[in-house]
Amino acid sequence: MTELLCRGRGVAPLLSSLRYPRTNPAHQAARLASCNPMILTGGQHVFNYNPTPSISNQIPWLGVSQLRSHHTTPKNKSSDPSPKPQTSKPISLPTTPDPDIPHLNASQNVHMTKIAAKPVTDRLATATCHIQFSNPRPWEILRGGGMTKKGDVSSVARIAGIMAAKRTPDIIPLCHPGIGITGVEVDVELLDPETAAKDSDGWGDLGHGAMRVVASVSCLGRTGVEMEAMTATMGAALTVYDMLKAVDKGMVVSGVRLLEKKGGKSGHWVRDGTTITTGTSSDGGSGGGK
To answer: Which amino acids are annotated catalytic?
Structure first.
């Protein structure tokens, strides 16, 4: 009959080794040896003895007595628990314009004028300029129909003036974009030498004829279109120069000026001495205000 027995004092040495994990390893092995099983077979003692290694090496949590509990308390970022008072300095920049020159602010720095408070009104502006010829060749070419190797001078110049009016905010830094232009009219007229001398209005007639450009721009908005009208005339005039420079590099663009403006706070304004009749009223009077 075979029965499994436990030598010595049973499980007491094992509990003792668990209770004292830091005991000398040799002493601990002797204690555990007393708990190794023994098989009795036919009256002979057969020992199945394997020295037990340190239990603390097999079971990591037995070394829990060596751990330390670390409890950290959150540190205050500031020793002063009360919040700091907010500064009274405004975040946004001031928009108050100079009373005399609106494109300057109160600090005399350039800015784009704020127009949100202005009323929406019908606005119109008309401008003009001249391209004076320095020799008779351009006049001779254009009086025969205005065709050159680059095309019809007058038609191309009109288109250039319209395109220039629409791109004015890209050219003039402080112009407002997206003002809603409602119409652009550009007229390019060839003047013979005699008519050009009378029409030059003291702008430097060269005695060989000229071309006169007139542009009118309208919008429904909070700011005027004076710059759009003058930019349209310059776009058309420079196109005339480009198309005729092969026969006359001495042409002069002169007399760029505003003839009339309507709408806005300053109302209706007309340049003194204006004699050119356009699609708008040009009664030769003088307007008031800016």
So the answer is: 242
